[in-house]
Write a structure and sequence with these properties.
- There is one protein chain.
- This protein is of the alpha/beta class.
- The protein has five domains: about 5-195, 3-Layer(aba) Sandwich (Rossmann fold), CATH 3.40.50.300; about 205-340 and about 540-565, Rossmann fold (3-Layer(aba) Sandwich); about 345-410 and about 495-525, Arc Repressor Mutant, subunit A (Orthogonal Bundle), CATH 1.10.10; about 420-485, no CATH class; about 575-630, Winged helix-like DNA-binding domain superfamily/Winged helix DNA-binding domain (Arc Repressor Mutant, subunit A, Orthogonal Bundle).
- About 45% of the residues lie in helices and about 15% in strands.
- It has 27 helices and 19 strands.
- The strands form four sheets. A seven-stranded parallel β-sheet has the order 3-4-2-5-6-1-7, sandwiched between helices. A six-stranded parallel β-sheet has the order 8-13-12-9-11-10, sandwiched between helices. Strands 14-17-15-16 form a four-stranded antiparallel β-sheet.
- Helix 2 (about 20-30) packs parallel to helix 3 (about 45-55), helix 5 runs parallel beside helix 6 (about 120-130) and helix 13 runs antiparallel to helix 22 (about 515-535).
- The chain is globular.
- The termini are far apart.
Length: about 625
C-alpha cells in the first residue's frame, strides 16, 4: 500500500500521475534534493505529499501564504491525514502543545511560515522530530531576483542544520532560470535534480484586445462562452460593481475579495464551484489553491502587475485540457493607470522609515520594545491620523511585512467592549420598559458574567446567534443602552492586526532592509514594463512572448492567440449573405451596430463593411440616435 501510485489512488482517487509528478516523487524518495518547476495547475502539492506519506515520519512544509497553508491542511484532514499549521496568533502554550504533537502524535505534515523558524522553541522541537522531507513552497521567494522576494526565506537553510540528513524539495509555478539557479544556491542543494515542465499550454488561447467599452466586450465573451469564468479586477469595489452589472444583464455572477468574511467567501466559492454562478469577479486574492478544471475563460479587465502573476491567474483556465481563453481587455488609459498604480506608489526608503516610526507612535511602542506584541489595526484611521497616501502607506506596510519587520494579518472584524454602569436592579427595571432589547442584554450577561466589573470584549456574531437576530441589531441595542447610560461602549471596525517581529529600533531597523527595498523597487519597475510590452506587442505570438519571458527557447507559434488568428486567411463570406442577414434583423426594428454584432455571427469588420454599402445604396439609413433602420420604413 505504500507505493506512490497506491497512495495516490487511496487518498486522491486518481489512477495515474500528471506529467513529471512521478519522476519528481521518485527523485524525492531516492533522497535527492529536488527542484520542481510546474505551471499553475500542474499538481505541485502532490509532489511532496505523496512521498511524505510513503515514508515514516513527518514532512515540514514552509509556505508564505497563510490561506494556502490552511487550505492544504484542511484538504489533508478531509482525507483523514493528520496535518497542522503554525499560523500567527497562537499562544506560546498552544505552540508548545502543537509541537509536542508533531513529535509524539503521528502527524504527517507540519506547515509553517519561514518566520517561525526564527523561534528557539520551534528549532528545538524540530531537532527532536522524525522528519522525512522538507518542502519549500513558493520557493522563488528565497531568490533576490524572484517575484515577491522575502528575506525571511533565508531562515529555511536553518532546517538543513536542524535535520542535516533530510533532503529538500523546492516548488514554484513561476521562475526564470536566474531565479532557479539562485534558489538552488540559497537552499544549499547538492547535485539537485531539476524538473521543468514547459509553460506551454496548447489549449489556452492568450488574447489581448483594445476596447473603448470593455463591458460591452465582456458581455460578448461571456455570451459566446457560456461556461465557468473568472473576471479579475483591480479593487474590491469593482468586484461587486462588475458582478452586479453582469447579474443585471442576465448572467449569473458572484464576487470575491480579501475584505469578505470567511462565511461570505465560502458561499461565493461554493456557488461558483458548483456552477450555480457562471462568473466569479475577483481581485488577485482569489484563486490560490483552488482547483476547478472546467474554467473556460479568465478575463482581466485591468492590466496585471507582472507577467508572473498573469501567467498564474490566466493558467486557471482550461485545466481540463479543453480549449480555453485568457483575455486582457485594455484601452488607452490603462498604461497610465498601471504606471500610476504600481510605479508611482513604490515607497522609497525614507518614506518606509516614516511609516514605521508612525506605526510605533500609533501603537505607543517604546524604543527597544514591541517584539511579539500584536495590535488591532484600522488602516484607514492610521492613514487619516498621519495624512498618508493610502496606496503608498499600504505598500510600505507590505514591505515591512515581507521583510519580516512586522506581520500584517487581514481580519476585517468588529471589536466591541462593554461595561455595565448600573446595578442589577436598575438594569432589569430599564429592560422591563424596553422589551425589544431585553433578550440581547440578557444574552450578554449570561455569556459574559464579568461585564459588571470590567470592560469586556463581546463577540457580536455569537450574541446574534444566541439572541436569534442580526449582528446589526446587536450593535443598535448596545448603542441604545449606551445612550441610556446603562453601559459604556467601545465599538470599532478592525481591518487588520499587526505583530512586531523585532524590537522597535527606528533607523537601525529599516537600514537592515534598505538594499532589499531598492532592489525590489527596481524589479517591480522591470515587471511592469514587461507587462506593457506584452500588452502592446501585436506582432509576436502571445504564447511565444510569455514563454520567452520565462526563457523557454524551444517555442513555436500557438496558432490560436489574438496575434496568430489575425494571420490566418479569413473564411470568405458572401457579402450578399451578410447584407441579407442585416436587412432581416432590421425588419424587426431599429438596431445599433452593437446590437447587430451581438445578433449576427459574422465578424465586426465584415458587418461594418456591408453596413457602409447598404448606406451608400440607400437601402438603410441612420436615425438621430445612431441606430440603423430600413430606408423604406
Amino acid at each position: 500500500m505504500n507505493h506512490p501510485i497506491n497512495i495516490l489512488e487511496r487518498y486522491w482517487k486518481f489512477t495515474s500521475f500528471r506529467p513529471l509528478q512521478e519522476e519528481i516523487i521518485n527523485s524525492v524518495l531516492e533522497g535527492e534534493d529536488t527542484f520542481a518547476l510546474l505551471p499553475t495547475g500542474g499538481g505541485k502539492s502532490v509532489c511532496f505529499q505523496v512521498p511524505a506519506l510513503v515514508k515514516e515520519g513527518i514532512c515540514i512544509v514552509v509556505s508564505p501564504l497563510v490561506a494556502l497553508m490552511k487550505d492544504q491542511v484542511q484538504s489533508l484532514q478531509n482525507k483523514g491525514i493528520k496535518a497542522m499549521a503554525l499560523t500567527s496568533g497562537i499562544s506560546y502554550k498552544e505552540l508548545d502543545t502543537r509541537l509536542d504533537n508533531c513529535i509524539y502524535g503521528n502527524y504527517k505534515f507540519l506547515y509553517l511560515s519561514p518566520e517561525r523558524l526564527q523561534q528557539d522553541l520551534v528549532q528545538d522541537r524540530i531537532r527532536q522530530m522524525n522528519v522525512n522531507l522538507i518542502a519549500v513552497d513558493e520557493a522563488h521567494c528565497i531568490s533576490q531576483w524572484g517575484n515577491d522576494f522575502r528575506p525571511s526565506y533565508k531562515n529555511i537553510v536553518k532546517l538543513r542544520e536542524l535535520q542535516p540528513t533530510v533532503n529538500v524539495i523546492a516548488l514554484t509555478a513561476s521562475a526564470t532560470p536566474e531565479v532557479v539557479d539562485d534558489t538552488i544556491k540559497e537552499l544549499d542543494f547538492i547535485n539537485p535534480k531539476v524538473f521543468r515542465q514547459s509553460f506551454s499550454r496548447s489549449n489556452l488561447a492568450y488574447m489581448t484586445f483594445t476596447e473603448e467599452d470593455k463591458l460591452f466586450r465582456l458581455k460578448a465573451i461571456l455570451t459566446k462562452n457560456k461556461a465557468a469564468s473568472i473576471v479579475y479586477v483591480r479593487n474590491r469595489k469593482a468586484t461587486q460593481d462588475i458582478s452586479n452589472f453582469l447579474e443585471s444583464n442576465g448572467f449569473t455572477a458572484t464576487f470575491y475579495h480579501g475584505g469578505l468574511t470567511n462565511t461570505e467567501k465560502d458561499k461565493a466559492l461554493e456557488n461558483w464551484m458548483n456552477n450555480q454562478k457562471q462568473v466569479m469577479v475577483a481581485t488577485n486574492a482569489f484563486g490560490m489553491g483552488i482547483d476547478k478544471p472546467d474554467v473556460k475563460t479568465v478575463i482581466h479587465l485591468n492590466l496585471p502587475e507582472s507577467l508572473e502573476s498573469y501567467f498564474q491567474e490566466a493558467g486557471r483556465a482550461g485545466r481540463d485540457g479543453n480549449k480555453a481563453f485568457a483575455v486582457i481587455l485594455k484601452n488607452k488609459s490603462d498604461e497610465l493607470l498601471v504606471r500610476n498604480q504600481f510605479l508611482k506608489v513604490l515607497p522609497q526608503v525614507d518614506f518606509i522609515k516614516l511609516v514605521y516610526r508612525k506605526l510605533s507612535s500609533y501603537f505607543q511602542v517604546p524604543y527597544g520594545e514591541g517584539q511579539e506584541e500584536t495590535f488591532d489595526f484600522n488602516f484607514n484611521r492610521f492613514c487619516k491620523t498621519y495624512g498618508f497616501n493610502t496606496l503608498l502607506a499600504y505598500n510600505a506596510i507590505l514591505i515591512l511585512d515581507r521583510t519580516s519587520i512586522i506581520t500584517l494579518t487581514k481580519l476585517f472584524k468588529n471589536s466591541t467592549q462593554v461595561l455595565f454602569k448600573v446595578s442589577n436592579n436598575a438594569l432589569f427595571s430599564y429592560l422591563e420598559t424596553h422589551p425589544q432589547i431585553s433578550i440581547i442584554a440578557k444574552s450578554i450577561l449570561r455569556t459574559y458574567g464579568g461585564a459588571f466589573e470590567q470592560e469586556t470584549k463581546i463577540n457580536t456574531t455569537l450574541m446574534a446567534e444566541k439572541a436569534s437576530t442580526s449582528e446589526d441589531k446587536i450593535i443598535e441595542a448596545l448603542v441604545l443602552l449606551e445612550k441610556a447610560e446603562i453601559i459604556t461602549l467601545k465599538h470599532s471596525k478592525t481591518d487588520a492586526q499587526i505583530t512586531y517581529l523585532v524590537p522597535r529600533e527606528d533607523e537601525k531597523t529599516i537600514n537592515r532592509i534598505t538594499k532589499v527595498i531598492k532592489q525590489q523597487n527596481a524589479l517591480k519597475e522591470k515587471q511592469v514594463l514587461s507587462v506593457l510590452e506584452y500588452s502592446n506587442n501585436d506582432t509576436i505570438c502571445k504564447s511565444v512572448q510569455l514563454l520567452s519571458y520565462f526563457e523557454e527557447t524551444q517555442v513555436k507559434d500557438c496558432g490560436i492567440c489574438s496575434v496568430c488568428i489575425t494571420r490566418k486567411p479569413s473564411k470568405k463570406v458572401a457579402s450578399a449573405d451578410i447584407k441579407k442577414d442585416i436587412i432581416k434583423a432590421l425588419e424587426h426594428g431599429e438596431l445599433s451596430s452593437r446590437a447587430l454584432f451581438e445578433r449576427l455571427s459574422f465578424s465586426e469588420e465584415n458587418i461594418n463593411t456591408q453596413l457602409k454599402e447598404l448606406l451608400e445604396y440607400n437601402i438603410i439609413s441612420i436615425t438621430k440616435t445612431n441606430k440603423y433602420k430600413l430606408a423604406h420604413i
